[in-house]
Amino acid sequence: MLKWRPHSQKRDLLRGPLAVCEAARRAGVPAPVTELVEQVGHAVAMVQELLPGTAIERLDPGTLGPALRINEQLDGLLRDRPDIPAVELYLRDDGPGYCLHGPLRRFSPRAAALERRIRAVEENSEQRNDAVHLDFHPGNLLAADNEITGLVDWDGAGRGDRRLDLVTLRFGIHGTGTHDAATREALDAVLDRIPAADLKPLWAHMSLRMADWAIRHHPDHTVHHWLDLAEQRL
To answer: Is the pTM of this model over 0.70?
Structure first.
């Protein structure tokens, strides 16, 4: 499988996302082998193993369990890799092209109020050394015969709190019409067991990330879709 990352540097991918992906693969996570990485002008071209299965269209309780077990495998995986960059939450400052605060402040009083709550959230001072996929949604999970066969698209992966991936998954199944209430309730129960001080900054990050992107790229009703979910825990 050929991948193309514009405006990227080979050295950054090798010491960051690709290093995380390889560590996860060695730990038993069904992640692809990267067979070739080359700088081509401003972009990086990669050849990765094509894993079996197809993207999960409907996450149900049967596939949620294996997804949660994959997340558990990421726990403490990078404790010996302090060289791998930490994942940033951008709760007070803008991210690099995403997690922008200004669009929320300008969109509506409701969105502006959410942005103020996001900025007020205190990040956990304890740095975890888990592997974080950062885009852990059903479309990046491959399955065949009700078994998860792959976790792909590690392009944003880094070192941090693996539970951010669980929050990402919860946002990924919010109100799409293809994931049943039982799945959402089961995942909510998992999130409820995370201490509030740990969960809140992770939830704030995804709230900012999804609301900002929707404001800049999607119609207003999509923005309200994400505000509805964000306000459930902020």
So the answer is: yes
Q: What's the token pair of residue 141?
A: 């999970």
The DSSP letter of residue 93 is S
Number of CB atoms found within 10 A of residue 170's CB: 23
> pLDDT averaged over consecutive 10-residue blocks of the chain (234 residues)?
95 97 98 98 97 92 94 98 97 97 98 98 91 97 92 97 98 80 95 97 98 98 97 97
CA-wise closest residue to 133 among 27, 208, 21, 231: 21
Please give the Cα distance from 203 to 61 (Å, whole number): 22
- Strand order across the 43-48 sheet: 2-5, 43-48, 34-40
Tallying the residues shown for the chain, one arrives at: 234
E-state strands within 103-233: 130-132, 141-144, 147-151, 158-160
Radius of gyration of the chain (CA): 18
> Quick one: DSSP state of residue 48?
E
Q: Exposed, middle or buried by CB within 10 Å (0-12, 13-18, 19+), for 77?
A: buried
